[in-house]
TrEMBL record:
Domain of life: Bacteria
Natural source organism: Rhodocytophaga aerolata
Residues spanning the membrane: none
PROSITE patterns xrefs: PA14, PROKAR_LIPOPROTEIN
Entry-linked Pfam families: PA14 (PF07691), Sulfatase (PF00884)
PA14 domain segment(s): 545-685
Protein's UniProt name: Sulfatase-like hydrolase/transferase
InterPro entries: Alkaline_phosphatase_core_sf (IPR017850), GAG_Ulvan_Degrading_Sulfatases (IPR052701), PA14/GLEYA (IPR037524), PA14_dom (IPR011658), Sulfatase_N (IPR000917)
Length: 697
């Protein structure tokens, strides 16, 4: 008897036992089910363009009589939930996008930027560590690429997935390994590669195994085993397909009929046949819907790759239904950047044949909409309305806060994202989010005929995107920190053909606000130097009705880390004004959180050094930049230091302090700068505004 048969029998036994439960037991289970946090499956595809979903663009091509491919399962699932039609990646290439996703930080804060493939993900809060703390089982199946440049094994890689919050891992560790979709075989331009399951390298067992099928089968197996062993525990599955990224390899056989527990792809774990789609040949199966089409071979391959993902996702949803957990599972489906133009040995390939960028311009590595706006839908039966759509700009770094709220746990104070749960469910007030992108790469935007003349051949170089007031500001090939943004209304002009910069006084002011904003929400990184790194952070344009001291609020609560209070709906035990960072305002000795907010007066433009010490955890944000992070892995009493260039004037600050049960209460914030010897920041420099300033404090 193989493992799959044994697992199915176990589920039948569980079902029979369930039928024999008493009414009281059923009522108890119902109550437990209501209290249980939802399962979360985050499905990330690799290089799938906005236009590569039928529901977003391919179905329109069909109506127009143009070549098209189908995504029937994905279309149905999107219709059963909400399409988020202006969802943005943090950068138009995979490594920084995946890092920002995991950390809940945009590219102004994440430690992996530009093309820093395989760099170690920072040892800070991740989606997995946050959900694990909330009681979730956590699994990663698919591509990682954030393990660290040093080491060659799970034991020696600094940021192996199981060291960043995942209980289980099966997939590719190295970035480039994910470019061969048959790990045990030589590809046209790729050698056999390594693939790991937890601490074991298993590629030698994967003869004939196509990774799209393998990752689907592994995801199903993990979910089934999890539901069999701990059905009352919610799970988080990060399913990161390595397709349809090139090489343009395809499966070897038709997708097995059915899906779920009994059908679809299955993990057999048999010697010589790891999953049930293994055949004697590899890389041969063109989907029959495309085999007879008069298309180039590379386009048939690409369409077949996308269809295989579609079948896999449909298979997994059938499993959720078989296990009766579909309604308690939230699914996010998206992609890591815009469409690629590589084939890796299969011939000339470009995404123009199917307009994979949709109604926009730009591909992977561009910051035009086609490179950064990705196909995204969220499905949660009976919680998210069917046939819904929302065009509010949002980004990858919002998912950590969203999932934290779902799990009933506060988001960490360092996160840049906001919870999208109000947007998705229509319940509660949606906080405004931040969409911010920075990226540097050589090359140019392709000169595709359908692209707007102003975009064709546009050099990349240093690039930057900021959304403000719903408008997109974009700078490419930045040579001077004073270079202007082009400004577009991407809701009405997705192709970015009408530059609104300078067309009215409003857009002139918006230009200046954008230039200030991008300096106020980021921190320089010496591994990715930008032209604007050495500009002082602008002060607020105007302030009024200032009072001495900071506003504060005290919350009586135990927290696993220093929390982002904006993510909580908890009434403070006490609130008021304090002339300085005074811990005497605490309402009890243990398990409290204090948030101080206000402005600090900077006497002259120059370089300032901030010093922070605390007993358990504290995070200081200046404007919207995280200046000091004394939270995860912080050692009590250790001094953390940051240097920043500040413009003369008033700068908003938020200092969040969290105390547990250990140690002596301690919170000390000092600074030094032009004409200021190191000293505590006190009442002469700290103010609060009695009314909201027009500048948006």
């Amino acid at each position: 008897m193989n493992k799959l048969t044994s697992l199915i029998i176990s589920f039948i036994c569980i079902a029979i036992a369930g039928c024999q439960q008493t009414a009281e037991q059923k009522a108890q289970n119902t109550n437990t089910s209501k209290q249980k946090a939802p399962n979360i499956i985050f499905i990330l595809t690799d290089d799938l363009g906005y236009g590569d979903l039928g529901i977003l663009f391919q179905n329109e091509r069909k109506k127009a009589g143009k070549p098209y491919f189908q995504t029937p399962h994905l279309d149905r699932l999107a219709q059963e939930g909400m399409l988020i039609t202006r969802h943005y990646v943090p950068a138009p290439v995979c490594a920084p996008s995946r890092a920002s996703l995991m950390l809940g930080l945009h590219q102004g804060h994440a430690n992996i930027r530009n093309n820093q493939f395989d760099k170690a993900l920072a040892d800070n809060h991740t989606i997995a560590t946050v959900l694990k703390k909330a009681g979730y089982a956590t699994g990663l199946v698919g591509k990682w690429g954030l393990q660290g440049l040093n080491g060659n094994s799970p034991q020696t890689w600094e940021a192996y997935p199981t060291k960043r919050g995942f209980d289980y891992f099966l997939g590719y560790v190295r970035h480039k390994d994910g470019h061969n979709h048959y790990p045990a075989h030589q590809a046209l331009e790729r050698p056999p590669v390594e693939l790991y399951q937890n601490n074991e390298e298993i590629s030698s067992q994967l003869k004939g195994v196509y990774t799209t099928d393998l990752f689907t089968a592994a995801a199903k197996k993990w979910i089934m085993e999890k539901e069999q062993s701990t059905p009352d525990q919610p799970f988080f599955l990060y399913l990161a397909y390595d397709t349809p990224h090139a090489g343009l390899q395809i499966a070897s056989s038709p997708y097995p009929e059915g899906g779920g527990v009994k059908g679809g792809v299955q993990w057999t774990d048999e010697k010589g046949k790891f999953i049930n789609t293994v055949t004697d040949t590899v890389d041969t199966y063109i989907h029959p819907d495309y085999a007879s089409q008069n298309w180039p071979e590379v386009q048939k391959r690409f369409a077949s790759m996308v269809r295989r993902i579609d079948d896999g996702v449909g298979d997994i949803v059938q499993l959720l239904q078989d296990l009766n957990i579909d309604e308690e599972t939230l699914i996010v489906f998206t992609s890591d950047n815009g469409p690629h133009k590589e084939s890796y040995g299969y011939g000339e390939y470009d995404p123009v044949f199917f307009d994979s960028y949709g109604p926009m311009d730009g591909i992977k590595r561009d910051v035009w909409e086609g490179g950064i706006r990705v196909p995204t839908f969220v499905r949660w039966p009976k919680r998210i309305a069917a046939n819904a759509s929302n065009d509010t700009p949002s980004g990858f770094h919002d998912w950590l806060s969203t999932f934290a709220q779902l799990a009933g746990i506060p988001a960490p104070a360092n996160t840049d994202g906001v919870s999208l749960l109000p947007l998705l469910t229509g319940k509660g007030n949606q906080q405004p989010g931040t969409v911010y992108i920075e990226y540097k790469v050589d090359g140019k935007t392709p000169e595709y005929e359908v692209f707007h003349a102003s975009h064709k051949g546009q050099p990349h170089g240093e690039m930057q995107v900021i959304y403000m007031d719903g408008y997109k500001g974009i700078r490419t090939n930045i040579e001077s920190p004073g270079d202007n943004f082009q400004i577009y209304d991407t809701k009405a002009d997705a192709k970015e053909t009408k530059n609104l910069a300078g067309t009215s006084m409003y857009f002139t002011r918006l230009q200046n606000r954008m230039k200030s904003r991008v300096l106020q929400l980021r921190r320089p990184d010496t591994s990715a130097v930008r032209p604007y790194d050495n500009l002082p952070v602008p002060a607020l344009d105007s302030v009024s009705d200032l009072g001495n001291g900071l506003q504060y609020q005290v919350l009586e609560m135990a927290t696993p880390w220093t929390p982002n209070l904006a993510s909580l709906e908890v009434k403070p035990a006490q609130a008021g004004i304090t002339p300085e960072l005074n811990l005497n305002i605490r309402t009890r000795e243990e398990d409290i959180v204090i948030e101080y907010t206000g402005v600090v007066k900077v006497p002259q433009t120059g370089e300032y050094t901030f010093y922070l010490q605390t007993d358990r955890g504290a995070v200081l944000r200046l404007h919207n930049a995280t200046l000091l992070d004394a939270d995860k892995n912080y050692q009590s009493g250790k001094e953390v230091v940051a240097v920043i260039l500040l413009e003369k004037g008033y700068h908003p600050i938020t200092l969040t302090y969290a105390r547990g049960k250990k140690g002596t209460p301690l919170l000390q914030l000092q600074w030094s700068g032009p004409g200021i010897a190191r000293q505590s920041i006190g009442s002469p420099q700290l103010f609060h505004q009695n009314k909201q300033a027009k500048a948006g404090l």
